[in-house]
């Protein structure tokens, strides 16, 4: 193999020298002309886990390295590994390249710093503390526009089996490198040849952003590398018209959309030509249609959030405040508008921060803030405060809490709406996931409109009460029953607080949960003191308010210092942690696969798991039909999982995927599961449920 590689290298260099007469006259400076470091994402991989290695490459000015398909000239890199027993190396993954045309020859190259990534699989059963020396010899070709030089690098690192901890600075570097890797398209493309031309039809949403697009073929001799590519948008597809060479069978490639690469797999078929006139006229229309559909889905998803246990009590209290107030027509309308403004502002602000984080290279999704223990603690204190208020421990006429007195004045209504939107972020439901996923590929103005639609959906019931007098008149008359209902509504809020304490414990361990409960106890004592003052006719007390703020500040500061805990799910029903490598392995075996993605802070996820996935009938159906179960835990915002979730047009969890044997793409199940849905698919091994 080494002799064959050297022979090919020699022939390639000879060809380049013939094409570039001035090359013999030039003497390159001593190499290496690409500086390469072997960097491990973690130096302490856990037994049975995977660790990603990066070839951090930095070409000298004027020099370039080559992509996996170098084009008309050049050679890809070649690796020779020396690995400990049981350690396996995956394929070399390349970032999206650049185009370089030299004397009519198209080259796919890297002229700027780049990184190729490789995944190593650590075997099970390796004792902690075991040293795993890793060595690799990389052979590659490096060129200028006039001369090429073969180079090699001897690289090594030493791993020590441990806890898979990743330093923050290294995680950030690998996030940047992974962002440049192409993502799976998820849908199959088709190609058709006509004479010396071929058309490739690639599924691509009409509303998705598209910049300077280009198709990089991985399959050799399918298209003419140096030929001009005519890329036309035609509804929900891109049609590429290019000169054909010898295309046959499946054609693989990478579509550069002008900022993001997509892995494309095209099979022979019938590809209708695109109409440039129709595309020009219809692209904007289709884009608006996609945006409007996402907006409608977000409104409907936000409307459903109102029945969640952390939002319903707040909405109920605001409705009761209108029933109690009666009177002036302008008052309920102003209250409704202020409440809606608070909800929409928070949703748009969270959406804007999310889009900013993603533009900076972070793989963030909806409810990204809940990956921080400090935010969980703040939510725990807020929800506990609402619960104690509903239970009658105190009355606080400030906008921070949803209570009876907060119903008076638009300031209280605005802040109540903002609070309702903030505490609703752990929840998701039908229509919402797809809508927010679509927002991530829409232009930023349309994306922010989708997030505003989510807020509008949450605020819609209260808006209707404010602007439709017959609905207000249908509310029960004020009376003692309102106090009873208020106490009842404290129960779901206390349950929400318990769930948040559990999430805090999952993120930071028993110490974090104890710290959160101590903070709640301290806050409860201050609420009790303030409530006692109110019972005697005094104000709540400025000192108590300052003390509450101090509890929140000190609590968040302390909880952030606690070490993170591995919160991955237990391997119930023979489930395994999700990885794309394991998914590919199981699919290669022809097994049906049920992959679901969850997080401890996702209320919908936990309801589905306890009422559907982890029930005895579903477990039995999965086991009887040999269905492999993979669980992706996104509690800590794992960027690898985040990118996989995003590739299926979702902005966050839950995500449920059913891979039937032999199917090209998974069946994306609804975000609200039923036992029958999963059992029928298991019985049919991918049949409709």
TrEMBL record:
<feature type="signal peptide">
    <location>
        <begin position="1"/>
        <end position="25"/>
    </location>
</feature>
<feature type="domain" description="Cytochrome C biogenesis protein transmembrane">
    <location>
        <begin position="295"/>
        <end position="500"/>
    </location>
</feature>
<dbReference type="Pfam" id="PF11412">
    <property type="entry name" value="DsbD_N"/>
</dbReference>
<protein>
    <submittedName>
        <fullName>Thiol:disulfide interchange protein</fullName>
    </submittedName>
</protein>
<keyword id="KW-0201">Cytochrome c-type biogenesis</keyword>
<dbReference type="GO" id="GO:0045454">
    <property type="term" value="P:cell redox homeostasis"/>
</dbReference>
<dbReference type="InterPro" id="IPR028250">
    <property type="entry name" value="DsbDN"/>
</dbReference>
<feature type="transmembrane region" description="Helical">
    <location>
        <begin position="409"/>
        <end position="432"/>
    </location>
</feature>
<keyword id="KW-0472">Membrane</keyword>
<dbReference type="GO" id="GO:0015035">
    <property type="term" value="F:protein-disulfide reductase activity"/>
</dbReference>
<dbReference type="Pfam" id="PF02683">
    <property type="entry name" value="DsbD_TM"/>
</dbReference>
<feature type="transmembrane region" description="Helical">
    <location>
        <begin position="488"/>
        <end position="506"/>
    </location>
</feature>
<keyword id="KW-0812">Transmembrane</keyword>
<feature type="transmembrane region" description="Helical">
    <location>
        <begin position="336"/>
        <end position="355"/>
    </location>
</feature>
<dbReference type="InterPro" id="IPR036249">
    <property type="entry name" value="Thioredoxin-like_sf"/>
</dbReference>
<dbReference type="GO" id="GO:0017004">
    <property type="term" value="P:cytochrome complex assembly"/>
</dbReference>
<dbReference type="Pfam" id="PF13899">
    <property type="entry name" value="Thioredoxin_7"/>
</dbReference>
<keyword id="KW-1133">Transmembrane helix</keyword>
<dbReference type="InterPro" id="IPR035671">
    <property type="entry name" value="DsbD_gamma"/>
</dbReference>
<feature type="transmembrane region" description="Helical">
    <location>
        <begin position="538"/>
        <end position="560"/>
    </location>
</feature>
<dbReference type="InterPro" id="IPR017937">
    <property type="entry name" value="Thioredoxin_CS"/>
</dbReference>
<keyword id="KW-0732">Signal</keyword>
<feature type="transmembrane region" description="Helical">
    <location>
        <begin position="512"/>
        <end position="531"/>
    </location>
</feature>
<feature type="transmembrane region" description="Helical">
    <location>
        <begin position="375"/>
        <end position="397"/>
    </location>
</feature>
<dbReference type="InterPro" id="IPR003834">
    <property type="entry name" value="Cyt_c_assmbl_TM_dom"/>
</dbReference>
<feature type="transmembrane region" description="Helical">
    <location>
        <begin position="290"/>
        <end position="315"/>
    </location>
</feature>
<dbReference type="GO" id="GO:0016020">
    <property type="term" value="C:membrane"/>
</dbReference>
<feature type="domain" description="Thiol:disulfide interchange protein DsbD N-terminal">
    <location>
        <begin position="47"/>
        <end position="156"/>
    </location>
</feature>
<feature type="transmembrane region" description="Helical">
    <location>
        <begin position="444"/>
        <end position="468"/>
    </location>
</feature>
<keyword id="KW-0676">Redox-active center</keyword>
């Amino acid at each position: 193999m080494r002799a064959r590689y050297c022979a090919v290298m020699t022939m390639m260099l000879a060809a380049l020298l013939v094409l570039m007469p001035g090359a013999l006259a030039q003497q390159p400076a001593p190499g290496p002309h690409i500086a390469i470091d072997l960097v491990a994402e973690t130096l302490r991989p856990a037994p049975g886990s995977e660790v990603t290695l990066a070839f951090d490459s930095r070409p000298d000015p004027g020099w370039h390295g080559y992509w996996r398909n170098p084009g008309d000239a050049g050679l890809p890199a070649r690796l020779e590994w020396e690995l400990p027993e049981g350690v396996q190396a995956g394929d070399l993954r390349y970032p999206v390249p650049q185009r370089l045309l030299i004397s009519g020859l198209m080259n796919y190259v890297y002229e700027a710093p780049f990184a190729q990534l490789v995944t190593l699989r650590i075997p099970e059963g390796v004792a902690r503390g075991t040293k795993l020396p890793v060595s690799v010899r990389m052979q590659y070709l490096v060129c200028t526009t006039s001369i090429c030089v073969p180079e090699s690098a001897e690289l090594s690192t030493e791993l020590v089996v441990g806890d898979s901890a990743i330093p923050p600075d290294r995680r950030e570097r690998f996030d940047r490198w992974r962002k440049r890797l192409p993502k799976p398209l998820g849908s199959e493309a088709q190609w058709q040849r006509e004479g010396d031309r071929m058309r490739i039809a690639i599924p691509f949403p009409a509303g998705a952003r598209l910049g300077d697009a280009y198709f990089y073929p991985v399959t050799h001799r399918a298209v003419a590398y140096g030929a001009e590519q005519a890329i036309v948008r035609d509804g929900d597809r891109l049609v590429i018209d290019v000169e054909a060479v010898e295309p046959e069978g499946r054609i693989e490639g990478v579509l550069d959309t002008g900022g993001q690469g997509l892995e494309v797999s095209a099979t022979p078929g019938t590809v209708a030509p695109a109409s440039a006139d129709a595309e020009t006229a219809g692209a904007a229309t289709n884009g608006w249609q996609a945006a409007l559909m996402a907006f409608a889905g977000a409104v409907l998803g936000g409307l459903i959030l109102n029945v969640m246990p952390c939002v319903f009590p707040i909405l109920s209290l605001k409705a009761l405040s209108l029933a109690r107030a009666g009177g002036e027509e302008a008052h309920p309308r102003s209250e409704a508008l202020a409440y809606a403004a608070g909800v929409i502002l928070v949703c748009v602000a969270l959406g804007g921060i999310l889009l900013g984080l993603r533009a900076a290279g972070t793989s963030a999704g909806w409810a990204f803030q809940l990956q921080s223990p400090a935010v969980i603690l703040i939510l725990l204190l807020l929800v506990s405060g609402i619960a104690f208020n509903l239970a009658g421990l105190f009355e606080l006429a400030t906008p921070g809490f949803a209570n009876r007195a907060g119903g008076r004045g638009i300031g209280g209504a605005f802040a109540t709406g903002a609070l309702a939107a903030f505490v609703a972020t752990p929840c998701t439901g039908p229509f919402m996931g797809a809508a927010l996923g679509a927002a991530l590929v829409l232009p930023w103005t349309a994306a922010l409109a989708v997030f505003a639609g989510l807020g509008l959906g949450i605020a819609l019931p209260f808006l209707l009460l404010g602007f439709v007098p017959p609905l207000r008149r249908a509310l029960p008359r004020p009376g003692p029953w309102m106090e009873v209902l208020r106490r009842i509504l404290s129960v779901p809020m206390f349950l929400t607080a318990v769930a948040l304490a559990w999430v805090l414990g999952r993120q930071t361990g028993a110490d974090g949960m104890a710290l959160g409960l101590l903070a709640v106890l301290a806050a409860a004592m201050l609420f009790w003191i303030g409530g006692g003052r109110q019972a005697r006719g005094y104000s709540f007390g400025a000192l108590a308010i300052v003390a509450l703020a101090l509890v929140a500040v000190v609590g968040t500061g302390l909880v952030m210092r606690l070490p993170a805990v591995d919160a991955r799910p237990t391997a119930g029903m023979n489930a395994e942690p999700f990885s794309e490598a394991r998914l590919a392995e199981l699919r290669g075996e022809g097994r049906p696969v049920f992959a679901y993605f969850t997080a401890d802070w996702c209320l919908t996820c936990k309801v589905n798991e306890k009422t559907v996935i982890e029930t005895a009938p579903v477990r039995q159906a999965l086991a009887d039909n040999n269905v492999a179960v993979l669980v992706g835990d996104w509690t800590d915002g794992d960027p690898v999982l985040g990118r996989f979730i995003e590739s299926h047009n979702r902005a966050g969890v839950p995500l449920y995927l059913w891979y039937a044997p032999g199917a090209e793409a998974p069946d994306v199940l609804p975000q609200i599961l039923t036992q029958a849905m999963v059992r029928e698919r298991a019985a049919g091994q991918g049949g409709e449920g």
